[in-house]
Amino acid sequence: GAIKMKTLILLTTIFSFNAFAASLKIKKSEVSWVATGYPGFLSIEGSGGKITAEHLKIEDNYLSGYFKVLVKDFKTGMDLRDQHMLNYLESETYPYAYLKIDKKPLNSQVFKGYLQIKENKKVIVGNLEIKGSKVSGSFNINLNDFPAIGAPSWRGISIADEVTIKVNADIAHD
User: Which of 20, 65, 79, 166 is buried most deeply by CB count within 10 Å?
Assistant: First the structure.
């Protein structure tokens, strides 16, 4: 009687919660990166790029969807360098970069997905942690994997192939 009914209600609650897809939106965000220059004494850092969520959701204890980043807002602290960077990224033609997350288990920090910059897509693996409403992640890319960008250089100074990218965002239910 009563125990069966309570068990049924409990099971229904558990299963309906797990099947529930929570759509997420980004409240505030920051993307930053570090690239070592050549010669090696030069470190180029940048940040900016508003992140928006597309089809970002938590369903059955998995996170999936897209982080869409506005690249024209990237800043390195030097106007001329910013201008060169945005030219390399062709920010007028390709205003966004996309990070797609394939079903990342919520209990794991490792994610797999792809990064799209201009017309180049590359599978990447990185770390992504969700604590409450805070999302933080990092991954490395090799610029050789994105031939549409090439290896930026100016007056004998170029960027090393490896770039570390960090993402921080506050998320909320839609």
Answer: 65
